[in-house]
Amino acid sequence: MPLANINDSEVDIVIGALQSDLTSFMNEWRTIFSRFHLIIVKDPDLKEELKIPEGFNFDVYSKSHIDRVVGSSSSIVFSGYSCRYFGFLVSRKKYIVSFDDDCIPAKDSKGFLIDPVAQHLANLTTPATPFFFNTLYDPYREGADFVRGYPFSLRNGVTCALSCGLWLNLADLDAPTQALKPQQRNSLYVDAVITVPSRAMMPVSGINIAFDRESVGPALLPALKLAGEGKFRWETMEDIWSGMCLKVVCDHLGLGVKSGLPYVWRQDRGSAIESLKKEWEGVKLMEEIVPFFQSMRLPQTVATTEDCVIEMARTVKQQLGPSSPVFTRAADAMVEWVKLWKAVGSGSSPL
Amino acid sequence: MAQPSSHVTPPLKDELDIVIPTIRNLDFLEKWRPFFQPYHLIIVQDGDPSKNILVPDGFDYELYNRNDVNRVLGPKANCISFKDSACRCFGFLVSKKKYIFTIDDDCFVARDPSGKEINALAQHIQNLLTPSTPFFFNTLYDPFREGVDFVRGYPFSLRGGVPTAISHGLWLNIPDYDAPTQLVKPLERNTRYVDAVLTIPKGTLFPMCGMNLAFDRELIGPAMYFGLMGEGQPIGRYDDMWAGWCAKVICDHLSLGVKTGLPYIWHSKASNPFVNLKKEYKGIYWQEDIIPFFQSVVLPKECTTVQQCYLELSKLVKEKLGPIDPYFQKLGDAMVTWIQAWDEQNSPAQKAEAPVAGVKKN
């Protein structure tokens, strides 16, 4: 993979710690993580001290840091999976790669250990092709190209701003789906990276992602908080919401989103049936969220990521707000996030 | 050769025709025998009609040469290309079946990574008989596949999907590159087996390759016209592209799905890139205008059938693309002729009769 043009020092790996003992997690990732700087953000709800093994270059942020920077009256809640956004905020690197703390490196179909960081960076540093579908998938991969019939003027592609990876073993299914098939595990390794076409909406899973912080940082935002949000992915929609916003921004600004490789191995954790008993709200909300985002068109005059988010927040409040306070709170959080980003997220001095 | 271990009725045996355009011979059918023999073939013989094309024994087929095309369509035969594989769409026209699978005569059975031979026809049937999901992208690809599902966040109201109109397969070995790419990378072979089927999202166009393609004739047949190519025409190797752009726009309008990915076939023959370049070169710069045209087409909601959509498209082609070259006026007219021919050949009275035969043997 051509990574000669990326310096390890341009990358931060951000991990939201929802479990306190990260020893085995970090050891599984050691050969891949040890080259990079890590930002580990501890879930503010976690009481125990974090256990992190030796040999890594990392900074830890916890509740006290978050409170100091954000203040207590914020409409943004950094608990649970959303704690990682604090890491995105304080990073000063061009690229961020982020994994859930219940994922470890997977093996490909030939049995080799996959380096998902390298694959994400390859995805981000080769163009995306959102305006016309290439039937041989990513034309920039070794051994592939644009097919006959692909317009030449579109072959330069656009900057890829987001790379969405996938999961072997426990796939990112919602609670009802996994509960119906409790034994189902994902063993299908699909050897492709695909640009998600412009105007096609998709559910972005936060479990295994990477993005160009410089281009779209403000659009990855902790905004949608379910009333019953919990510490399992089955009990959240924060990443799905963030991803919808991000896709609209990318489509508007002419940036690309890729999906597919790399895979990580997601460990079994929790019970879909238990989560199902708790919470249907997310599933119901998606019925409104999807048509809303599918029809969202930002005015031409909106030209920066921050302004895109502000404009989207306004529309969310206006059109979705009336149907649920969850949306009003999300809109407020989006506006607050941009303010926070401008105050803390940009600029050169780290926290 | 793969053989079924017990007698299993092949799916859609009496509902699917296999359409094969050929100018050389049909030796390749020998390799496909276990998979194709139960099905009816429609052979469209291009080029010199006096040449005798041998069909291997044991296949049930109709064969049409240029004389047959002229006889069946009369003056409307001018919409069917000559000396180009675009003539295959004549086979779509005269078929009486619900489904079509079309394949080129230089395409062979591929093997999956485990070494098992791929039954491409069975995979296409599976693709066509399961819904598509064009309104929201599923990151795990085809959710109707065994062991796969919709991901978290996929709205339940969209999980029924829509009927699949087209199944677009891929190729191992010689990839479907245009002439310039072939010239730059003459040795590149596609060795990557991507184990996925996915729905192409609504509003997104794609380059449809006719080498390994299946479709539901009842849902989208009239849109699968492969244009005016070959002899007497300024362009070649854009027949399937043209059909794909028209068909996708119409599928999007009528909420029908288009899938791409599996199955793979083994494409054995690399055509001459210099010959290809001569055929394609107008297409290469015309497509810069053609693509934005298709991307901006909005079909009126009064167009509720494929034929109505297609006729509307033909008007827009003449209006918007006509200024680029007189070819598009001719093409627009040919599109109308095609629909007339389609309606004639597929009227209820026609469907009740025996198929109009070329040479039919068992």
TrEMBL record, chain A:
| UniProt GO cellular component terms | cytosol; Golgi apparatus; plasmodesma
Record bears the keyword Cell wall biogenesis/degradation = yes
GO BP term, pick one: cell wall organization
**Which is an annotated GO molecular function term of this record?**
UDP-arabinopyranose mutase activity
What does the UniProt entry say about where the protein is found? Golgi apparatus
The entry's keywords: Cell wall biogenesis/degradation, Golgi apparatus
Q: Which Pfam families match?
A: RGP
Q: Which InterPro entries match?
A: RGP_fam
Source superkingdom: Eukaryota
Q: Which family does it belong to?
A: Belongs to the RGP family.
Its recorded name reads UDP-arabinopyranose mutase 5
UniProtKB/TrEMBL annotation, chain B:
For this record, an example GO cellular component is: Golgi apparatus
In terms of InterPro entries, this protein maps to: Nucleotide-diphossugar_trans (IPR029044), RGP (IPR004901), RGP_fam (IPR037595)
Q: Which UniProt keywords apply?
A: Cell wall biogenesis/degradation, Glycoprotein, Golgi apparatus, Isomerase
Q: Name a GO molecular-function annotation.
A: UDP-arabinopyranose mutase activity
GO BP terms in the entry: cell wall organization; plant-type cell wall organization or biogenesis; UDP-L-arabinose metabolic process
Quote the subcellular location field of this record: Golgi apparatus
Does Cell wall biogenesis/degradation count among this protein's keywords? yes
* Site-annotated residues for Required for activity: R152, R159
According to the UniProt entry, what is the EC number of this protein? 5.4.99.30
Q: Tell me the enzyme class.
A: isomerase
| Keyword Isomerase attributed | yes
Positions bearing carbohydrate: R152
**Catalytic activity annotated for this protein?**
UDP-beta-L-arabinofuranose = UDP-beta-L-arabinopyranose
The protein's matches in PANTHER family, at most eight in alphabetical order, are given as:
UDP-ARABINOPYRANOSE MUTASE, UDP-ARABINOSE MUTASE
Query: Per its database record, what is this protein's job?
Result: Probable UDP-L-arabinose mutase involved in the biosynthesis of cell wall non-cellulosic polysaccharides.
| Homology family | Belongs to the RGP family.
Name the record gives this protein: UDP-arabinopyranose mutase
Species source reads Dovyalis caffra
